[in-house]
Structure formats: structure tokens, C-alpha cells
Amino acid sequence: MTILVTGATGNIGGKVLARLHAAGHSVRALTRDPARAQLPSGIEVVGADLGLPDTLPDALDGVDKVFLMALGHNKRTHDANLVAVARKTGVEHIVQLSTLGVAEVEEENDTPLGLWHRQAEKALTESGLAWTILRPNGFMTVALGWADAARGDGVVRSPVADLPEALVDPEDIAEVAVRALTEPGHEGRTYALTGPEALTAREQVAVLGSVLGRKLRFEQISIEEHRAVMAGLYGEATADGVVAALRKALESGDDFRGRLFPDVQSVLGRRARSFRDWAEAHTADFA
Known about the structure:
This protein is α/β, with parallel strands linked by helices and about 290 residues long. The protein is about 40% helix and about 15% strand. It has helices at about 10-20, 55-60, 75-90, 110-125, 145-150, 170-180, 200-210, 225-235, 235-250, 265-270, 275-280; strands at about 1-5, 25-30, 45, 65-70, 95, 130-135, 155-160, 190-195, 215-220. It comes from Streptomyces melanogenes.
């Protein structure tokens, strides 16, 4: 069995790839630039672009299962491109990374970010292929963006101060993905992935300061300042989508991102990692 991993050099895809490779599975990494991909020896690397369907048939040739992820406003088209080619090349099962909220928010009330994921899911579930969908909440690794502040003046800035979020450790997402790819019984299942607790940004900063043994202070910034940072990292369209979801969450005051779901524990047979667990495992990133 050969498993193709998209996003193979990224935060989630890289972890999925590493776990599959360590367990001895035949894995193939898809990346737009194989020359720049720094991956362990023994992993087959193929060059392809989810935005260019003509580059995908060779990458999918001989592949049985796929871990599919794409980010931002291109997700709906990129996922649909791969699914369409996968139907023609004999792929049996796709595990798709989506986002929490697709089932918790009605379509007519959705944000652009939610609609992109909803449309991507629809392309897969209506394809006739076996599928598993992972819907994680926000990633704990977002806190890595606070590393410079933690090393500097100790002031962590965010536009969200008191909105509880049950963030999830990307390692848990990757482990669930590997189980879905390598074990029977996950086809046709959708998993909502959260951590074991809902913390506000202020509370996350307090936990991080406790773990690091440093006095950190939280300071709220405007959404406009946050959007400028997002646009620089991910582009204008994606930044607009993220900010629209953020504004809606802040205005409603009753956001689904604070809800806890049991699916990590159900799949893995253990408690999901807490934010403190994550912080303790990443102290070197803040050194």
C-alpha cells in the first residue's frame, strides 16, 4: 500500500509523513519544489501542484490512499482538483483535513473560511471514493508566534483576549490521520478534533509563562493590526477570510470553538494533549 501525503513539508503533513515513514509504510511526499524539500532518506518525493491538475496524475499513479490538505482560499479548488484526478487513478481512500465549524455553523450563516472547507468536503464526499474527514479546532502551534515576545519584552499581543478556544495539538491531529490511513473502520467517518480544555488567549499566555518561568503580559491589539500580519504571511484573500470568521466569533460571543469533542480520545484511546503539555514539549522554541 502506498500513501501520498500532500502538504508534506508543512506543520501537519510533515508530522503525518514522519509517523508513516517511522512505522515502515510506503509513503510518497507531494511538494511543489522537490529540490527544496528536506525530507528523510527513503521517502519518495514527487513534484506537483494542487492548483495545476495536469501535474497530479503522475503523482497519484500507484497510490492507494491520500492525506489531503490545502490551506486558505484555494482549498476548495485544490482539494477538488486532487479528488477528480484520484477518481481516475485508482485511489481507494482519502483522509481530508478540514476545519471545525463545518457542522456547527449553518451554511447560510457561514464565513468565507467555513464555506471554502464546506465546498472542499463536498467535493470529496460526493466523489464515490472512501473518505475520512478531520475537523480540527485551532492549532496550539499558533502560540509559536509569541516566541519573539516571550524572548523580548514579555508582552504577547493578540486581537482575541477572552474568547475560549479548545485548541488542539498538531501531533494529535497527525496521529489521528495516521490511524485513519492505516487502520480499518474509519471510512465514512468525520472527527471533530479539540484539546481537553477551552482556554482564552490570556489564559494561554499565563500557562506559557508558568511553564517557561517568565513573567508574560497579554495586550490586546485591533483586528486591523492582526489582519495586516495575516496578509503578510498568507495573502490578502486568506487574511480576509480569517478575519471575517474572527469578527463573527467576537460579535456573537457564543462561539463553537470553545466546545469540547471526544473524538481524539475515541480514536487514540487516550486523552488529548493539553496546552500545558504542548508548552512543556516546546520550551526550546521559546529559549
